[in-house]
Every structure is written in C-alpha cells, then in structure tokens.
C-alpha cells in the first residue's frame, strides 16, 4: 500500500483561509472526514511570543491524519497550519505534494518566525525592565508624595498650634492689660495716701524738734549723773576686789566638802555591794540578792509581782509602780554601772516562780555602748529564754533618771498596765 506524502501549508491570515479551504476540500474528498476544531491550547509562555495550537483529526478509520494550527501571541494574526497523514486506504487518487520551492519557503518562514520570536523576547525583556524602572520611579514618587503629605499635615498642625498660641497670647495680653490698669489705680491711691502721710509727718516732725531740744537738755543732766555714778563704781570695784578673795576661799571649802561626800558615798555603796545589798538613788535599802527569792517570790501573796532588773537607769521605777498600782508587789535589783549581761545574770533563778500575770522589766545596756561594747544578742536571748512562765519586758535605753510624771506612760505601755482594773494613773 503506497504511503501518502505529507502536505504542509503556512500562510498569513489574509491568505490562509482561502488556501486552507482549498486544501481541506482536497482532503475531505477522501473517505471519512475531519473532526471539529479543538479549542485553542493555552499559550506556551507566560508573556508575549508564545505559541498556542488548534487540532483536528481525520475521522477515517484507516487514516490517521492530523490538521494543526499554530498561533504566535502578539504577532499580527500570523497563523501556521500543517496537515500530516501517516497512512491511507488504497485509493487511486494522488494528493498534492510539497515541492522544493515550497519547502524552501517554509524554512525561510520558519527562520523569520524564529527571528521574530527572538526579537519579541528581547522586546519583552526591555519592556519588563522598563516596567520595573517605572515601578521603582512610581514607588519613589509615591514615597515623596507621602512625605509631602505628612509635611503638609505637619504644617497644618503647626499652623493650628500657632493660631491657638496666638489666641492664648492675646487673651494673656488682655488679662495683663487689665491687671496693669488695676495696678495703676492702686498705685495712684497709694501715692495720694503717701502725700497725706507726708503732710502728717511734717506736722509730727515739728513737734519732734521741740522734743529734741528738751531731750538735749535732759542728756546734759544725765551726763552729769553718769560722771557721779562712775565715781561710785570705782569705789564699789575696790570693795568687790576685797569680797572676791573671800568668795574664792568659800568655793575651795565647798569643793573639798563635796569630794569628801562623794568618797563617803562610794565607800557606802561598796560596803553594801560586798554585803549583798543594793540601794536606790535615795539611799533606801533594797532586798538583798541572796534573799530575794525567799522574801519576794515565795511570800504566798496572790498579787501581781513586778521585778525590775536595771543599771543606774532603773532608779525610781520601783517607787513609781508602788505609788501608781494597788495590790502589786514590786522589787528592784539595781546594779549602777553594770553591763547588760551582769544585770540579767540571775534572771532565770529570780523569776522561777513567776506566773503569766507577773512581769520582769529589764532596763540596761547603756554602759555597754559607753565602753564600745555591743551586747551579745544571742547570749541575752538564751538567758532570757530560761524564763518561760512569765512576761519579759526589754525597755529601751533611758537617758537620765526616771520621772514619775514624764516616764510613767512609757512604763505603763511596757507592762500593758491597761489590762489591770486596779491600776490608777
């Protein structure tokens, strides 16, 4: 069976339709026919210069011919058609074949198409670059425009602020003008008053001139009196010198007597300490240390007991509680000049029989600071923790002797005296 030669036809749209219709008529004379044209295929490129296709096939059972249309995007309606028949039935009719001149024309057109495609790609690249350049310029212009709009808004805002400031300044000027007018009126009133006062002072000045004359006469008299008084002072000075010698003798005797009294007091305190007794600042004898527990703690009384352990700062506390409280047993153990540890040395044994209603008041520590010794807080805490059955009150360092009128409210707060109904201030 002879093969049917390939027929290929290429033409621009102006000629293509007529030439294609004549070719189709020849092809349609074969047995069978052509199918309908398919839809144009999508462009083979995303930009200009691509190719899209249309295809239809022969409907003959023994013929497998194809009819293809090519279309290049963005070219002047340029179309390319081709007909390819692979095998046909045994027919005596001969189909036209492509001669050499047509083949050369086809190759020439193919080269032109390739050239046009390259030119289109170059043009496409140039257009893309130009578009990108224009987009950049648009962005720059847009940014510049935004900056100018912001600047215009800022100018408008500043203009409004300036107008507001101008209005405020104008109102301020009006108020200042009103104040100045009031000030001027006030100054005019003061000027008138000062003139009246000047006239009054001139009258007073005339009166004072007469008084000055009289005072000058009195000064002369006083000058004479001063001279006589100076003479008397000289006489008294001589007599005072005589009395000064006698005063020195009296002072020397007083200091001597005072020193002797202090030495006797120290000897008496030393003697009392050696015998286990202490005294208050008034010289009153206090219960001996060795007998305190027996005479005070186990006296069988149901009254509240208050024990005061103190250095020289605790004087008069015993006396204050006795004068202010009823049904209360108090005892003071004073150690003048003692350190804190010495004051609380026997606190555990002294308060062994104390109850929850009793109090131990500790007023000491000032001597530790005077000799640059800080009390050992841990030792003190351990010592005081031995007294578990009663109330321990640590008083602050008190400068000076205890005064009933001044310091009792503080002592009252120390022992919470308000809980006892019998306590009276």
Automatic annotation (TrEMBL):
Q: Does the keyword Acyltransferase apply?
A: no
Q: Which residues form a coiled coil?
A: 99-279
Q: Which PROSITE patterns match?
A: TSP1
Q: Does the keyword Transmembrane apply?
A: no
Q: What is the lineage of its organism?
A: Eukaryota, Metazoa, Ecdysozoa, Arthropoda, Hexapoda
Q: Which GO terms describe its molecular function?
A: metalloendopeptidase activity
Q: Name one GO cellular component term.
A: extracellular matrix
Supply the PANTHER family for this chain.
Answer: ADAMTS A DISINTEGRIN AND METALLOPROTEASE WITH THROMBOSPONDIN MOTIFS PROTEASE, PAPILIN
Record's protein name? Uncharacterized protein
The record's annotation in Pfam families points to: TSP_1 (PF00090)
| Keyword annotations of the record | Coiled coil, Secreted
Q: Where in the cell is it found?
A: Secreted
InterPro entries with a match to the protein in the record: ADAMTS_ADAMTS-like, TSP1_rpt, TSP1_rpt_sf
- Mind listing the GO biological process terms from this record? extracellular matrix organization; proteolysis
């Amino acid at each position: 069976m002879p093969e049917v030669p390939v027929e290929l036809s290429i033409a621009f749209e102006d000629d293509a339709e007529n030439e294609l219709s004549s070719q189709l008529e020849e092809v349609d004379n074969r047995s069978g026919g052509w199918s309908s044209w398919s839809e144009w295929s999508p462009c083979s490129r995303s930009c200009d210069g691509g190719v899209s296709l249309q295809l239809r096939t022969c409907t003959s059972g023994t013929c497998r011919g194809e009819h293809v249309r090519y279309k290049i995007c963005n070219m002047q309606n340029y179309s390319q058609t081709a007909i390819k028949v692979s095998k046909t039935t045994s027919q005596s009719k001969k189909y036209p074949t492509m001669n050499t001149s047509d083949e050369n024309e086809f190759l020439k057109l193919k080269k032109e198409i390739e050239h046009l495609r390259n030119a289109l790609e170059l043009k496409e690249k140039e257009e893309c670059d130009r578009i990108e350049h224009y987009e950049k310029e648009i962005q720059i212009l847009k940014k510049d425009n935004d900056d100018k709009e912001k600047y215009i808004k800022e100018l408008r805002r500043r203009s409004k602020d300036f107008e507001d400031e101008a209005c405020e300044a104008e109102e301020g000027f009006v108020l200042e003008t009103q104040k100045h007018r009031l000030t001027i009126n006030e100054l005019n009133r003061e000027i008138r008053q000062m003139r009246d006062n000047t006239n009054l002072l001139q009258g007073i000045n005339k009166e004072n001139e007469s008084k000055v004359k009289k005072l000058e006469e009195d000064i002369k008299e006083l000058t004479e009196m001063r001279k006589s008084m100076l003479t008397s002072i000289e006489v008294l000075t001589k007599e005072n010198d005589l009395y000064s010698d006698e005063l020195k003798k009296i002072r020397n005797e007083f200091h001597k007597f005072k020193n002797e009294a202090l030495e006797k007091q120290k000897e008496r305190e030393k003697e009392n300490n050696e015998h286990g007794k202490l005294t208050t600042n008034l010289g009153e004898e206090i219960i001996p240390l060795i007998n305190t527990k027996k005479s005070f703690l186990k006296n069988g009384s149901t009254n509240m007991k208050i024990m005061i352990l103190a250095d020289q700062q605790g004087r008069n506390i015993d006396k204050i509680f006795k004068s202010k409280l009823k049904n209360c047993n108090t005892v003071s153990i004073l150690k003048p000049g003692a350190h804190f540890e010495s004051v609380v040395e026997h606190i555990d044994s002294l308060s062994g029989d104390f109850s929850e209603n009793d109090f131990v008041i500790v007023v000491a520590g000032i001597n530790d600071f005077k000799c640059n010794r800080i009390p050992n807080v841990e030792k003190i805490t351990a010592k005081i923790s031995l007294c578990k059955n009663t109330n321990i009150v640590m008083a602050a360092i008190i400068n000076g002797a205890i005064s009933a009128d001044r310091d009792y409210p503080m002592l009252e707060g120390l022992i919470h005296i308000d809980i006892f109904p019998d306590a009276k201030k």
